[in-house]
Design the sequence.
């Protein structure tokens, strides 16, 4: 089953004919209701910002326009109470001055509780007034962002000592039957005023109305017309006067018949009104019950959403801080990456240069290996030739020694000749030797020619060669 609620705006059309004020209003309150610059007796601060936020809100403007800020005699337990059977005042205006003084205006309505308030007032009671609403408290100060304004209530011992507004009573009938009779008489007079031709009759009728009323003024206008007409026609025919009296009599009879008819219609309307009132009361009770349940659910959801909203605000603040830190770190990393990119580019240039040098080195190494290989081959050939040369040289030296020893008559066996024997060593050995006839050998004869030297720096010197 789906719950629903119906909001109906009801405008009171019953007004006092003399004052123009709705007849259900029995008085007005006006005066100071709050001081935003002081801490109240409950230890709370309701600041200027709170009041200005309320005054600037669309909810306040709509509530004032439609009379939704209904106050009670004493604060109800629930700030959002909708049990208007206990209502007694309706706020019509609120303002704040430069000194933080808040002023309000209220109508005291003729509900049962309103009548009780009026009785207390007549007994000399001066009620104070106190603000009603709900919101978060931060350091004993009402939070203007979460405060929900619901109006003012009449109280004793108000939280603000100066919040005792002045009451002004309104002289207006609150009896429904009397008001309807009065309205019916006014209608009859308006419909038949042109037929009233007697100033005396007008005087009698005028005595039943207040001088400030529209009906009194209308009768006075008709009386002035009759007076002007009488001055122009001083003599009136008796027959005409008789007809005039008869017309007035007929008018009176018609008025009485109309009054009787109106009374019957009134009784019928009152009966229908009573039935409709009972039906409306039942509907109102049902609507109040449904509305109260819905308001409880809505307030619960509102509190939950407010809690979620507060949590989201904190989380959003944390994320913003985290995002700011990430941006700073990202900027540092970006600078490092850019520096690394420059360094990498420089290293790439170095690597490219090293690669070029390596290619040149590889080419040179290849050439060197080729030359080394060629030199190794040449070296092998030279070593082979050197060995051959040594063998040949040793043979030549031995043969030379034999020949020379024979020529000189020296015993060849006494000469120890090797491939390493130098020419000087050989000469010394020959010179120191004796011939076979025990004669000294002749001096060494210079060779006729020199055997070519074999250049081998690893194993021999120039003087290793034997000359002949």
Sequence:
């Amino acid at each position: 089953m789906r719950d629903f609620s119906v909001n109906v705006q009801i405008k009171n059309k019953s007004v006092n004919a003399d004052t123009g004020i709705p007849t259900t209003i029995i008085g007005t309150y006006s005066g100071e209701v709050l001081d935003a610059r002081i801490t109240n007796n409950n230890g709370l601060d309701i600041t200027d910002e709170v009041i200005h936020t309320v005054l600037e809100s669309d909810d306040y403007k709509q509530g004032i326009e439609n009379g939704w800020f209904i106050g009670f005699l004493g604060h109800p337990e629930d700030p959002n109470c909708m049990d208007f059977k206990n209502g007694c005042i309706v706020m019509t205006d609120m303002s704040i001055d430069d000194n933080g003084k808040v002023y309000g205006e209220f109508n005291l309505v003729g509900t049962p509780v309103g009548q009780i308030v009026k009785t207390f007032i007549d007994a000399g009671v001066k009620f104070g007034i106190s603000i009603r609403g709900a919101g978060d408290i931060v350091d004993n100060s009402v939070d203007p962002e979460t405060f929900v304004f619901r109006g003012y209530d009449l109280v004793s011992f108000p939280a603000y000592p100066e919040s005792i507004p002045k009451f002004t009573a309104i002289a207006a009938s609150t009896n429904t039957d009397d008001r309807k009779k009065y309205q019916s008489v006014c209608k009859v007079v308006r419909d038949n005023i042109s037929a009233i031709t007697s100033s005396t009759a007008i005087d009698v009728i005028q005595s039943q109305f207040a001088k400030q009323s529209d009906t009194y003024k209308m009768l006075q206008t008709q009386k002035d017309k009759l007076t002007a007409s009488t001055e122009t026609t001083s003599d009136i025919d008796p027959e005409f006067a008789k007809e005039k009296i008869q017309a007035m009599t007929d008018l009176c009879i018609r008025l009485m018949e109309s009054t009787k008819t109106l009374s019957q219609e009134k009784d019928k309307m009152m009966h229908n009104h009573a039935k409709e009132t009972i039906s409306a009361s039942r509907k109102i009770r049902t609507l109040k019950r449904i509305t109260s349940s819905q308001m409880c659910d809505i307030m619960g959801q509102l509190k939950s959403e407010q809690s979620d909203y507060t949590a989201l605000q904190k989380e959003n603040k944390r994320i913003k801080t985290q995002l700011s830190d990430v941006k700073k770190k990202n900027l540092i990393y970006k600078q490092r990456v850019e520096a690394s990119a420059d360094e990498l580019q420089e290293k790439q240039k170095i690597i490219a240069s090293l690669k070029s040098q390596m290619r040149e080195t590889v080419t040179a190494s290849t050439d060197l290996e080729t030359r080394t290989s060629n030199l190794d081959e040449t070296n092998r050939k030279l070593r082979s030739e050197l060995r051959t040369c040594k063998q040949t040289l040793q043979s030549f030296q031995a043969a030379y020694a034999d020949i020379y020893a024979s020529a000189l008559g020296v015993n060849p066996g006494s000469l120890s000749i090797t491939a390493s024997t130098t020419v000087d060593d050989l000469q010394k050995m020959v010179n120191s030797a004796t011939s076979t006839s025990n004669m000294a050998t002749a001096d060494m004869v210079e060779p006729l020619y020199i055997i070519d030297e074999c250049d081998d720096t690893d194993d021999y010197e120039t003087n290793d060669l034997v000359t002949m």
Remarks:
- The longest strand covers residues 25-35.
